């Protein structure tokens, strides 16, 4: 196991999520809900499709998250004016106000890692390149599978 990159990533992800848990409980958010709020704090209003793409979540996972956040009064969902087939998600005033309470979270997480900012930026860049390479490999794998079925 000590040579498995995937297990190291899995372990780091679980450790990070565990570190976030008590901090986010203060806001009444889960980690996935926090990610939704981060996107909305950056963009104020997005479609469900855009949100799913940004977070790499399918609608079956995203819909319950949005429903819970909407029930808490943090966001609204409505049909897009530009395209009635599309559902737009927007922050409410309470959702926007929560941003001030959450502003310190990234700094708390950085401090908890014990790593320097440049180390974290390099790690993030490496992980983004890894994600892109894995996405490409998965796409090629799916194409090869389709070709094999013909």
TrEMBL record:
Keywords: Cytoplasm, DNA-binding, Transcription, Transcription regulation. Gene3D superfamilies: Winged helix-like DNA-binding domain superfamily/Winged helix DNA-binding domain. Pfam families: Staph_reg_Sar_Rot. The keyword Cytoplasm applies. One of its GO terms (cellular component) is cytoplasm. It is found in: Cytoplasm. SUPFAM superfamilies: Winged helix' DNA-binding domain (SSF46785). Its main location: cytoplasm. SMART domains: HTH_MARR (SM00347). The keyword Transcription applies. GO terms for molecular function: DNA binding; DNA-binding transcription factor activity. GO terms for biological process: response to stress. Residues 2-132 form the HTH marR-type domain. This is Transcriptional regulator, MarR family. It comes from Saccharopolyspora shandongensis.
């Amino acid at each position: 196991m000590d040579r498995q990159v995937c297990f190291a990533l899995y372990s780091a992800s679980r450790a990070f999520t565990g570190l976030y848990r008590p901090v986010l409980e203060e806001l009444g958010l889960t980690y996935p809900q926090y990610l939704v709020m981060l996107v909305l704090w950056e963009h104020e209003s997005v479609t469900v499709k855009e949100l799913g793409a940004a977070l790499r979540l399918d609608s079956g996972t995203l819909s319950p998250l949005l429903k819970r956040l909407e029930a808490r009064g943090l966001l609204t969902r409505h049909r897009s004016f530009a395209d009635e087939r599309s559902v737009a998600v927007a922050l409410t005033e309470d959702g926007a106000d929560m941003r001030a309470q959450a502003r310190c979270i990234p700094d708390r997480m950085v401090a908890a890692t014990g790593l320097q900012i440049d180390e974290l930026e390099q790690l993030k860049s490496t992980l983004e390149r890894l994600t892109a390479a894995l996405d490409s490999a998965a796409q090629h794998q799916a194409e090869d599978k389709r070709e094999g079925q013909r």
